[in-house]
Design goal:
The protein is an all-alpha fold and 465 residues long. The protein starts with 9 loop residues before the first helix and ends with a helix. It is globular and about 65 Å long. 81% of the residues lie in helices and 0% in strands. The structure holds beta-D-glucopyranose. Beta-D-glucopyranose binds next to α7, α14 and α18.
C-alpha cells in the first residue's frame, strides 16, 4: 500500500503534533474576527450613533442586526463553497470578504456605505463561524479534536474581550473607526496564514485526490497504519455516499443529524448569551451604574468567558462533551436566576452580586454551549454534505441570534428585566432536557464513526447499501 514509513520517532511525533496545532491556531484567528466584530459594537455604538446621527432605537438596533442578517446569509453561501472549492480556499475567500467589509466600514463616508459594510462583515462572520471549526475538525486526530476545534471558540472569546477593552479605553474618545479598523490585522493574518496550511485530507479524499490526502496526512499523523485507517474510513464513507447534492440534504438519513444540529444551534442563542454580550453595558448603565463601571463589569465578564473556555479546551477530550454540556447548562440556569434576583432587588444595591451572577452565567456558557455547539456542528454531519449541513445549522444560529437581539429590548419593555431573565432561565431548563435526551457522546470517535452514533437506526441500511 503506502510507502512504508516507521511509526515515527519522538521528534517526528512532536513535528506532526505541532503541524496540527499550528494549522488549528492559525485558522482559529477567524474566531478573533467573529468575536471582535460582534463584540466591538456594544462599546462604540454611542460614538457611531453620534457620527451618523442615529437617534431612534430602531436605527441603533440596525447596527447590530444588519451584521447578524449578513452572518445568516454568509453561512448559507459558504456551505457550498466549502464543499465545492475546499475548506482552505473558502477560508481564504472569507478573509478577503473581511478586508473589504472592514475597510468600507472604517472609511465609510456616508450612512449607506456603513450599512453595506456591516452586512459584508456579517457575511464573513457567518462563514468563518463554521468553516474554521469544520477545517480544524478534519485535520485534527480524533483524540485531540474537541480541544483543537474549540480553539476557535477561545479566539471568539478573546476577540470579544479585546473589543471590550478597546471600548473601555476609548470610552469618551469617540474614534470608533480606529476600533473597527483594528480587525484588519487578524483578517490579513488569517488570509496569508491559511495559504501556508494544508487542505483538509477528508475533503481531498472525497474529491478522489487520495495521493494528495496521503501527502497531507504524512505531515499530520504519526504512523502509516493511522493514515491507512483514516483514508480507508473516509473512502468507505465517501463511496457509500452519493454526490453531495442539495437533494441529499433532504435525505431521510440526514434528518436526525440536521435536526440535532439546528436545534442545538438555536439553543445556543435562545438561552440568552448575547443579551449579555451585546447589551450588558447598556443594561447595567440603565440599571444605574456609570458608563465606566458598566464597562468594567463587562470586562470582568469577558475575562471569565476566556478563562472558562480554556477550561473547556483542556477538558473536552478528557471528560467528554456531554458532562460539560449538562453541568454548564445547570450553571447557566443558576446564573440566570441569580441575575433575575439581582434585578428584582434593584441593580444599584446589588451591583457586585449582579456582576458575579453575570460572570457565573457566562462562565458556565463558556464550558458548555459556547464551544460544544460549534464542535458538534463540525462533527455530526456526514462528509458528503458536511459543509452544507453545517451551514444550515449555522444559519439557524445567526437567525436565532438576530431574533434574540431584536426582541430583547421589547421583552424587557413588556415583562421587565426580572421577568426577562426568568424567561431565559426557563428556556435553559427546557433546552437542558433536550440535551440530556438527544446529544450523543462523540469524544474520541473518528468523524466517520460519528454518523453511526447520531442515527444508529440507519446504520445497517447504510452498510448494506
Ligand atoms: C456564540 C456567540 C457568542 C459567543 C460568546 C459563541 O459560541 O456563537 O453568539 O457571542 O459564543 O462567547
Amino acid at each position: 500500500m503506502a510507502d512504508s514509513q516507521s511509526s515515527g520517532s519522538v521528534d517526528d511525533r512532536r513535528r506532526h503534533r505541532n503541524a496540527v496545532t499550528k494549522a488549528a491556531v492559525l485558522t482559529a484567528v477567524g474566531g478573533i474576527l467573529f468575536g471582535y466584530d460582534t463584540g466591538v459594537v456594544g462599546g462604540v455604538l454611542p460614538n457611531i450613533a453620534a457620527d451618523f446621527s442615529l437617534v431612534s432605537p430602531f436605527d441603533k438596533g440596525l447596527v447590530v442586526s444588519i451584521l447578524l442578517a449578513g452572518a445568516a446569509v454568509g453561512a448559507i453561501v459558504a456551505g457550498r463553497i466549502a464543499d465545492e472549492l475546499g475548506r482552505r480556499r473558502a477560508i481564504f475567500i472569507i478573509s478577503i470578504v473581511f478586508v473589504v467589509g472592514l475597510l468600507m466600514s472604517a472609511l465609510a463616508p456616508a450612512l449607506w456605505v456603513f450599512w453595506l459594510s456591516r452586512f459584508i462583515i456579517g457575511l464573513g462572520v457567518g462563514a468563518t463561524s463554521f468553516v474554521v471549526p469544520l477545517y480544524i475538525g478534519e485535520i485534527a486526530p480524533p483524540e485531540r479534536r474537541g480541544g483543537l476545534v474549540s480553539l476557535n471558540q477561545l479566539s471568539i472569546t478573546m476577540g470579544i474581550l479585546i473589543s471590550q477593552l478597546v471600548a473601555y479605553f476609548l470610552a469618551g474618545h469617540g474614534d470608533w473607526r480606529v476600533s473597527v479598523a483594528l480587525a484588519l490585522l487578524p483578517a490579513v493574518i488569517l488570509g496569508v496564514g491559511v495559504l501556508s496550511e494544508p487542505e483538509s485530507p477528508a475533503w481531498l479524499i472525497r474529491q478522489g485526490r487520495e495521493d494528495e490526502a496521503r501527502t497531507v496526512l504524512r505531515t499530520l499523523r504519526d504512523s502509516d497504519d493511522e493514515i491507512d485507517e483514516e483514508i480507508a474510513d473516509v473512502r468507505g464513507v465517501a463511496r457509500e455516499e452519493s454526490k453531495g447534492s442539495v437533494g441529499d440534504l433532504l435525505d431521510r438519513r440526514l434528518r436526525p443529524a440536521l435536526t440535532l444540529g439546528v436545534i442545538l444551534a438555536v439553543i445556543q442563542q435562545i438561552t440568552g448569551i448575547n443579551t449579555v454580550i451585546y447589551f450588558a453595558p447598556t443594561v447595567l448603565q440603565e440599571g444605574g451604574l456609570g458608563r465606566s463601571a458598566a464597562l468594567l463589569a463587562l470586562v470582568i465578564v469577558g475575562v471569565t468567558n476566556v478563562l472558562m473556555t480554556i477550561v473547556a479546551v483542556r477538558y473536552l477530550d478528557r471528560v467528554g462533551r456531554r458532562p460539560l454540556l449538562i453541568w454548564g447548562m445547570i450553571g447557566m440556569t443558576v446564573g440566570l436566576v441569580a441575575l433575575a434576583t439581582a434585578f428584582a432587588i434593584g441593580i444599584k444595591g446589588s451591583a457586585v452580586f449582579a456582576t458575579i451572577a453575570l460572570a457565573f452565567y457566562v462562565g458556565s456558557f463558556a464550558v458548555s454551549l459556547g464551544p460544544i455547539v460549534w464542535l458538534l456542528i463540525a462533527e455530526i454531519f456526514p462528509l458528503r454534505v458536511r459543509g452544507q449541513a453545517a451551514s444550515i445549522a449555522t444559519m439557524a444560529n445567526w437567525s436565532a441570534n438576530l431574533v434574540v437581539a431584536v426582541s430583547y429590548l421589547s421583552i424587557i419593555a413588556a415583562v421587565g428585566r426580572t421577568g426577562t431573565f426568568v424567561i431565559y432561565a426557563a428556556v435553559t431548563v427546557l433546552s437542558l432536557m433536550y440535551v440530556i435526551a438527544k446529544v450523543p457522546e462523540t469524544k474520541g470517535l473518528q468523524l466517520s464513526e460519528v454518523e453511526a452514533v447520531i442515527s444508529p437506526e440507519h446504520e445497517p441500511e447504510r452498510r448494506a447499501a
